[in-house]
Write a structure and sequence with these properties.
35% of the residues lie in helices and 27% in strands. It has 390 residues and is α+β, with helices and mostly antiparallel strands.
């Protein structure tokens, strides 16, 4: 081959490689489509980032059946954490609680039952009687307890939810959505990790009656540690599931499946899809300094900046090396600055797509300095401004 042809081929292949690399760098981040799910609505999302990996009809207002009880126990957990309630407290079993239909814990009229036992009766046995007993013990009556449920729903941003009772038996104007249940489950696991372990318990014995958890995934998949099943004729078969594999937790919600077996299968398909094609990484630890910034007119010369909580990124698998993090600090931070005040941002991108972004905040309070410090820094700031203007 003559030199000219060799040069031409070399140039062609060089341009081809450059073209392919450029297109690879700018290509959209794609993953295989989610599996088909036979249900009225569903959602799959990452626990740490809230990133939705699959969804359909996720904002539709639907009857939640016993998934209502996730909010019931969340309210009780909040009361426990606030010191308004204790696990050893004894709750009276009213006639209304005793007569409640559907799945039951089999509490007896007029007896007193520990709050801890009632919680396990709700979580593991899905006891409607236990739900009503807890509601009455916490709020005096179920209607007032439902008001508490709705207040927490509004605070959490559950915009497509409204609760009328504590057990999920059919009532007009009692509804929630797949997305709202994922929001609620995320809050429950994050706020109450010690209590959450009860959701993985496979059976519970009360009054010499042993009942098994209806969540079939607890026996099928060792990574699944919750959360709750539900069924009524109106709602169909429902399941909120959560699984932890390595350091990645996923939450899946399936509403309106055709059978108990189907709700388990559809949740399993969603979870397997999420773990197979996505990965989650903690990139920055919360409450740890990421930057030591100059602070003007303060009692101290510098202030530590970081994140209020851990920053995670959920990305398609094998993309970790393409992640980029950029820390931007506000100019001229001036005292006083309170702990937690925004002083910049942390942005994470993957191939020019923003994956996550959080505020960079002050990790401590820095008060104003004395008069000499403030005057000195005022002069230095004026000098810097003058230099910048040249």
């Amino acid at each position: 081959m003559n030199p000219f042809k060799k040069f031409t081929l070399f140039l062609f292949f060089g341009l081809l490689v450059t073209f392919l690399q450029a297109n690879a760098e700018n290509a959209e981040i794609t993953t295989p489509p989610a599996p088909n799910v036979a249900a009225t609505a569903y959602i799959l999302q990452d626990f740490h980032t809230g990133k939705v990996l699959a969804e359909n009809n996720a904002d539709a207002r639907l009857a939640p059946a016993s998934l209502t009880k996730i909010m019931t126990v969340y309210v009780v957990f909040r009361e426990l954490s606030n010191g308004h309630l204790h696990l050893e407290d004894m709750a009276n079993i009213s006639e209304k609680a005793w007569k409640t239909s559907g799945s039951r814990m089999f509490v007896e009229l007029g007896n007193q039952v520990k709050v801890e036992d009632l919680l396990k009766g709700v979580i593991i046995q899905s006891g409607n009687d236990a739900s009503v007993a807890l509601a009455e013990h916490v709020a005096g009556n179920e209607a007032t307890f439902a008001d508490m449920m709705n207040q927490h729903a509004a605070r959490l941003g559950m915009t497509n939810s409204h609760f009328k009772n504590s057990d999920g038996l059919p009532m007009d104007d009692h509804y929630t959505s797949a997305r709202d249940l994922a929001i609620l489950t995320t809050a429950l696991i994050k706020e109450f990790p010690d209590y959450y372990r009860w959701f993985s318990q496979k059976e519970f014995t009360f009054n010499k009656i042993t009942q098994h958890n209806r969540n079939q995934l607890l026996s099928r998949d060792e990574s699944v540690d919750g959360v709750k099943t539900g069924f009524t004729d109106d709602a169909g078969y429902c399941l909120v599931a959560s699984a932890l594999r390595e350091d990645m937790r996923l939450i899946s919600v399936v509403l309106g499946a055709k059978s108990a077996n189907a709700r388990a299968n559809e949740n399993q398909s969603l979870l397997n899809y999420g773990f197979r094609f996505f990965e989650s990484h903690r990139l920055y630890e919360g409450k740890k300094p990421l930057n030591e910034a100059r602070i003007w007119k303060g009692a101290e010369k510098t202030i530590p900046l970081g994140l209020a909580e851990d920053l995670y990124a959920t990305i398609p698998r094998r993309q970790y090396n393409d992640l980029k993090g950029v820390i931007t600090v506000d100019k001229k931070i001036t005292a006083p600055v309170k702990e937690g005040a925004k002083q910049g941002s942390v942005k994470v991108t993957l191939k020019d797509q923003v994956i996550n972004e959080k505020d960079l905040v002050a990790l401590k309070t820095v008060e104003q300095g004395n008069i000499i410090q403030r005057l000195s820094d005022s002069v230095l700031m004026m000098m810097e401004k003058s230099e910048d203007g040249k």
